[in-house]
Amino acid sequence: MRLIGLDPGLRNTGWGVIEMDGHALRHIADGTVHSDGDAPIATRLVQLYDGVLELIERWNPSEAAVEETFVNRNPESTLKLGLARGVVLLAPAKAGLLVSEYAPKRVKKSVVGTGSASKEQVQAMIATLLPGARIAGADAADALAVAVCHAHFIQARGAYGIEAGLATRKSAAGSNIQPGLQRAIAAALAREAGGAGS
Amino acid sequence: MRLIGLDPGLRNTGWGVIEMDGHALRHIADGTVHSDGDAPIATRLVQLYDGVLELIERWNPSEAAVEETFVNRNPESTLKLGLARGVVLLAPAKAGLLVSEYAPKRVKKSVVGTGSASKEQVQAMIATLLPGARIAGADAADALAVAVCHAHFIQARGAYGIEAGLATRKSAAGSNIQPGLQRAIAAALAREAGGAGS
Fold first, then answer.
1. What's the pLDDT score for residue B160?
2. CATH code at A184?
3. Which of A64, A108, B78, B90 falls between 20 and 30 A from B63, CA-CA?
4. Using one digit for the tens of pLDDT, what is the confidence trace for A45-92?
5. Which residues in B lie closer than 8 A to residue A94 (C-beta atoms)?
6. Of residues A30, A68, A101, A139, which has the active-site annotation?
7. How far apart are the first and last CA of chain B?
8. Could you give the angle at which helices A138-159 and A179-197 cross, rounded to 10 degrees?
9. Chain A interface, best mutation among B79, B98, B100, by max A CB count within 10 A
10. Phi-psi region for residue A88, left (φ > 0), alpha (ψ -120 to 50) or beta?
11. Cβ atoms of residues B49 and A94 within 8 Å
């Protein structure tokens, strides 16, 4: 199963594609979609949207995972992140992919084993989990991390026999998973993350 | 020349289409594109995007004007507005329309004659400027107001012999009109707005 991870930003949107074969993960490709800072905002959004759609067409992933945008203290920055995230969530959904979102803490916990991991720890662990990958940069590494987090989630879901239909992932619209199921998934994820870090 | 105005919101995006024939403006249609509050965020963005694209296909405007989102104090609300605005700016740009943005104060000044006009004053003036229109609600009225503001801008541009290519409208990426030209446009707009209000 092939997954694409996306880390939205108006100037640079990181992306990473991995292949999941049971518990084995393999790096396929990664990079960054840029938008031209001098162009009008609508043009920049078209650049991001078309860029992400091209990646999906080229790498043919079956699911997408998007990092939940950090809510900045500066409203202007928050709004710009929102613009980019809107378009980056839209593109895979329009391409018919299931789109999941993960908070940065959850990504860190899943990849490194702790929600307070540093950026460097995440990058080091990504290099360990995806050996041989030459990663394009920090945004691409973050995108690979959210793809790995989603892979762990799918593996946990499989290991605990939770049906895909029930295990609706938390979206920005709020989680609609039953609390008991949510705890089971969280426990599975924690074990999974622990296993990945050992 | 037909124009579509858009007032982005994640739950409700107002829209309004007007026809501009020289200095005469005519109401064509208005309404609201809704997204389902219970759906995942990516699905809601698809609903908004498809809804706006359908309107463009149906009413065939040649330019779009989008209200610049109010930057809220609450980061969560700002981010949600950003998501919706990203998608609402993207749709007309993908359809090949020129997309302009106007700040709420500029819309009020253009429609009522003062940037501090109340919502009620804007709605009353829209009803006067577009006689016979039965307007669908507050979001649709705001969208018609931004369309009227854009029409005033185009009329001012025409009246002062400013070529379309030069009069690049202010986008969120910043204005790239020369200061002298900008003042000429502002003066023309002020006269235009004064004329509309008398």
1. 57
2. 3.30.420.10
3. B78
4. 999 999 999 999 999 999 999 999 777 778 888 888 999 999 999 999
5. 46, 49
6. A139
7. 24
8. 120
9. B79
10. alpha
11. yes
CA A41-A42-A45 angle, to 5 degrees, is 85
Domain with A74, as residue range(s), is: 2-197
Q: Which residues of chain B make contact with A65, given a CB cutoff of 8 A?
A: none
Helix, coil or strand: residue B131: coil
Paired sense of beta strands B2-7 and A63-67, if any: unpaired
Q: Which of A72, A83, A171 sits opposite B40 (nearest CB)?
A: A171
Task: Give residue B71's pLDDT.
Answer: 73
Distances in Å between the alpha carbon of B57 and those of A69, A90, B26, B51? 32, 20, 19, 10
What residue type is assigned to position A91 of the chain? Answer: A
Q: How far is B190 from chain A (nearest CA, A)?
A: 25
pTM comes to 0.80
Which residues in chain B are closer than 8 Å to A168, comparing Cβ atoms?
40
What percentage of chain B has pLDDT greater than the value 70?
Answer: 79
* Structure-token pair, residue A164: 């895909």
Total domains, chain A: 1
Residues counted in chain A: 198
Q: What amino acid positions of B are annotated as catalytic residues?
A: 7, 67, 139
